Amino acid sequence: MKVAVTGASGFVGGPVCARLIEARHAVRAVVRTAPLAAGVTPAELHANCDLEDEASWDRVVAGVDAVVHLAARAHVMHDDPATSDALYRRANVHVTQGLAEAAVRHGVKRFVYMSSIKVNGERTGERPFTPQDVPAPEDAYGRSKWAAEEALMRIAAGRMETVIVRPPLLYGPHMRGNMRRLFQLVQLGVPLPFASIRNARDLLYVGTLADLVAALVQHPRAAGRVFLARDGAALSTPALIAAIATSLGRSTLCIPCPPGTIRFGAKLVGAADMAARLLDDLRIDDAATRGDLGWSPTLSFPDALAETARWFKSRAS
After folding, report:
1. To 10 degrees, what angle do helices 237-248 and 301-316 make?
2. N or C: which end of the chain has fewer CB within 10 A?
3. H/E element, 311
């Protein structure tokens, strides 16, 4: 197939392009400014492509069989609350809507959209999230992803197959954000006040997500559905830190501290969201993804973490 991939130079885009090329698809890599990952050679490269420019939409999708839309505004720190929703809606909703309309015009068969588990919500209670849950996004990013899903499904109805993926927190080479900061803290070897946390959170390795996307591009049972995915068993924050320490060859001490104290202190310094990810549960039920697609992660969590640690140590050296 010929597949257009937006955000092809990003954290997710690089592995997705590599996996699609490995599967012998012809990839049209769509990037704004950043270069492609080393070793990724697409059939076509659309460089300097501003997806917020409406004139770019037809060029991106013309002549392809499928679109994998990864480009998005995500996790921008210190946004002005007064403008945050509008900025996310323009980058994530308006662009997705425009690309979907162009894809329908050009007869694209399938549109794979990278959403977020934040559409389901920020934390789980007694049971894991499922694709059938009523969406409950809480922040501007999550709301924009849900609105983009709705726009895509409305535009494509009866005219183009849609596939939506909602991944949890990702990790892997070239990661940024909270997971990279956690690796940095563990690398420092300082005592961390997380021993009293008893949560359970699911993670997903970026290479595993790329494998899933490659399957979703053409799997006959994927059309019109939402998919969740995870590595395996959910981990507590202390267990994750211990695993990261092992992968880095470090000895990190977790000391007891009441979770309420951590939450209060984080709120005082403007880090309430980060504290929530360290303290709350976020579990995923991906039984339908595994069962209906015949899919499962090809790399175990320890091996995926080891790959991530090798990249991290190469950057730190």
Report:
1. 60
2. C
3. helix 301-316
**Residue whose C-alpha is closest to residue 279's, from 316, 240, 306:** 240
Q: Are strands 225-228 and 203-205 parallel, antiparallel or unpaired?
A: unpaired
Q: What is the tens place of the pLDDT at every residue in 200-236?
A: 999 999 999 999 999 999 999 999 999 999 998 899 9
User: Quick one: which H or E segment has residue 162?
Assistant: strand 161-166
Catalytic (active site) residue 113: no
Place of tokens 């979703």: 216
C-alpha to C-alpha distance for 95 and 48, rounded to whole angstroms: 16
Lookup: tokens for 209: 């997500």
What is the spatial distance between Cα 317 and Cα 1, in angstroms, rounded to a whole number? 40
Tell me the residue type at 219. H
Q: Which two tokens stand for residue 225?
A: 């559905």
Give the CATH number of the domain where residue 214 resides.
Answer: 3.40.50.720
Both structure tokens of 10: 């990003």
Spatial contact of 252 and 241, defined as CB atoms under 8 Å apart = yes
Catalytic residue among 88, 113, 141, 205: 141
Per residue in 8-50, pLDDT (tens digit) is 999 999 999 999 999 999 999 999 887 887 778 888 888 888 8
User: Could you tell me if residue 121 is inside a domain?
Assistant: yes
Residue 23 DSSP label: T
Domain-located, residue 186: no
| pLDDT bucket at 103, cuts 50 / 70 / 90 | very high
What's the predicted TM-score (pTM) here?
0.92
- Residue 26 resides in a domain: yes
CA nearest neighbour of 161 among 217, 94, 215? 217
Pairing verdict, β 110-114 and 2-6: unpaired
The reply to whether 261 falls in a domain is: no
Residue 6 one-letter amino acid: T
State how far the Cα of 3 lies from the Cα of 66, in Å rounded to an integer.
5
If DSSP codes are grouped into helix, strand and coil, which group holds residue 18? helix
Rounded to a whole number of angstroms, the distance between the first and last alpha carbons of the chain is 40
Number of domains in the chain: 1
